[in-house]
Amino acid sequence: MLPLLLASSSAYRRELLARLRLPFTWASPDLDEQRLPDEPAVELVRRLARQKAEALAASHPQHLIIGSDQVAVLGEQILGKPHTFDRACEQLLEASGQQVTFLTGLALLNSATGHCQVDCVPFTVTMRELDRERVERYVAAEQPLDCAGSFKAEGLGVSLFQSTHGCDATSLIGLPLIRLVDMLTREGVVVP
Q: Does residue 167 fall inside a structural domain?
């Protein structure tokens, strides 16, 4: 088996990948993650996942490289990482009582052959009706400033949900393991 490399500095993605009990290393790709003009959200995450994997191919020529990218979509608006307390509160208040769809792009690049599998895994969350006080308490407690949509599903973020719908709950955290296992299997990796 070729060594696995996670093209991400995300601690959340590393924790998820560790669940598969496969040895892996990780490196952060240096990449401009700006959306192209009029680029649909699905294409954005697919493109960025692939580019993250490709960015490390030259320095890791005999690897299976995993790239992933995620955005949250509210209506037609793409919600990125808020980076500030105030923006996180704004995002959550905008999402109150609404459906937010998380789109997670996933790529698996065999840098030895150049073969790349790419997909997008959606997961939808219906948010509870939220008021400013609840939102501010949540943001203060969790500090979800580096999370698309301003919440951590693996923590207190679930208290903001009314319901969820999707085929792979790990995609909500940023690395769809069910789809990744399918891709790894096609590359000859046996899990477990």
A: yes
In a domain, 171, yes or no: yes
- CATH assignment of the domain containing 118: 3.90.950.10
CA 159 to chain CA centroid, nearest Å: 20
| Model pTM score | 0.91
SS3 state at 41: helix
Please check whether residue 191 lies inside any domain of the structure: no
- Distance, in Å, from the CA atom of 165 to the CA atom of 139, rounded to the nearest integer, reads 24
Q: What are phi and psi of 147, to 5 degrees?
A: -120, 130
Active-site residue (options: 30, 32, 38, 69) = 69
Is 65 within 8 Å of 56 (Cβ atoms)?
Answer: yes
pLDDT digit string (tens) for the chain, length 192 residues: 899 999 998 888 999 999 999 999 999 998 888 899 999 999 999 999 999 999 999 999 999 999 999 999 999 899 888 999 999 999 999 999 999 999 999 999 999 999 999 999 999 999 999 999 999 999 999 999 988 889 888 888 889 999 999 999 999 888 999 999 999 999 999 998
Q: How far is CA 109 from CA 38, 158, 180, in A?
A: 26, 32, 11
What domain range includes position 129? Answer: 4-186
Position 192 in a domain: no
Is 86 marked active-site?
Answer: no
Q: How many CA atoms lie within 13 A of 73 on its CB side?
A: 17
